[in-house]
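Why do we care about 3D structure at all? Because function follows from shape, and shape follows, mostly, from sequence. That is the central idea of this module. The next example makes it concrete: a single protein chain, its amino acid sequence, and then its structure expressed as tokens.
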Amino acid sequence: MRRLKIVLVVFVSLAVLMVLMRGPLYRSLFSYKDCGERDSFSITSKFLLAYIDSVADMDNVESVGQIAELSNKITSAQLSFQATRSEINPNKLFPNKSTHCVGYSAFYAAVCNYLLSKNGFGAAWHCQAHCGEIHFLGYNVHHLFDSAFFANHDFNIVRGGSDAEIYFTDPTLYDYLGISRVSPHNY
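And the structure:
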């Protein structure tokens, strides 16, 4: 009975540690290889702009990192994932629409660029949606699937003019696991 208790405590401790360390653990195991940029969208929907402004006014945004995080929160709150082909224009995805990773990434980029501009970072910083491949310990996992749906995966790169500080983020992953940053593959 004592041995079972020890095994249970160790198992629960490891599970809790994995949940708490899911971001660093994910970044150490998975990386994203950039395969090219996607088209950008500007936000033209007055309803979406009003929503972003109302959320941004509640958060005290003072840095690009905070904007990247807030963009994840807004995207996650407004979108839900679907595996089939869907709308990707952020202006048509608001409010509360379903889309795939391309739509998530386009929505995130539009929100992030709006917030960068609104908070005085727009001249030096830009967010771009990218398509790419996910690698597990250096191995391209997309080769494991036959479906065209798994041919690539979209993520975002937020970078400043000097490239000194770059944020790689996957808004779909954030929606599912709460992981706000991802690792670049040989960047």
